[in-house]
Structures are given as structure tokens and as C-alpha cells.
């Protein structure tokens, strides 16, 4: 502010309370200073909004890039699987039980279990839900 505000006690206190008032000129200064600060605050809020929008855009680009990298990595891992392992993975991701997978591929239950176990070892995924997420990310099945 331009200067110090002077607090002036009223000569005759009302109801024994020592009220303090500002002189009219200082009240005007206070009002003008409040308006100036409000305007600065408004400008700062607008700048902050712009910065947040820019940061959001950068974060979204980073997330998109990370997703593409994950997808590329998943697709490379998918290529490392045998054709039969890919078939088993696709059926598991579609929600079929191992017994159903064995029946559909005309292989024994034990062979289907072996394929599922090898899939989990190669991909370092240890649950069926993880296999499903991997199959969707790599594009083997549609969500």
C-alpha cells in the first residue's frame, strides 16, 4: 500500500466499547488497494488456469507415449509366443476356462494347462486377469 493506515480511536466510545475506525482517506486507499489486489489475483488465476491446461496436455502426451511403448513391448512379447500359445491366450482372454480351451483346440486338459503355465512364465504374469489385460493391450483380442 501507499502508506500506513492510521487507526483513530473514537473520542466517545459507544456502549463502553472502544471502537476503532479508519479515516475516510485511508478507507478509500484500502478500497483501492483491495481492488488492485483483486485484479492481480484474477490475473494470477488466469495464468494458473493456462499453466494447468498446458501441464494437462503434456501429461496426456506422456501417457499416450507410455501407452504406445507398452503396446509395442506387448506386441514384441506376443511375437515370442508360439502360435498355439497365442491361441490359448486368446481363448483365456475371451473368458474360456482351461477345460473349455482344451476341448475347443482338441488337446488334452493337461496340455492346455501346460500352455497356460508357459504363457504365464514367458510373460511374467501370474493370474488370468493379467493375461486378459495383456491380450487386450497387445491387440490379440478386442475389449
Written overview of the protein:
This protein has 143 residues and is mainly α. It has 5 helices and 2 strands; from the N terminus they run E-E-H-H-H-H-H. Helix 2 packs across helix 4 and helix 2 (83-93) crosses helix 5. 71% of the residues lie in helices and 4% in strands. The protein has 2 domains: 24-80; 82-143, Winged helix-like DNA-binding domain superfamily/Winged helix DNA-binding domain (Arc Repressor Mutant, subunit A, Orthogonal Bundle), CATH 1.10.10.10. Strands 1-2 form a two-stranded antiparallel ribbon. Mean pLDDT is 80; it is low at 10-16. It starts with 6 loop residues before the first strand and ends in a 6-residue tail after the last helix.
SSE class: mainly alpha
CATH fold naming of the largest domain: Arc Repressor Mutant, subunit A
- The end-to-end distance, rounded to whole angstroms, is 62 Å
Spatial strand arrangement across the major sheet: 1-2
Task: Count up the helices.
Answer: 5
CATH architecture level-2 label of the largest domain? Orthogonal Bundle
Question: How are the SSEs placed, and which strands pair?
Answer:
Layout: E1 7-9, E2 20-22, H1 24-80, H2 83-93, H3 98-105, H4 109-123, H5 128-137
Antiparallel strand pairs: 1-2
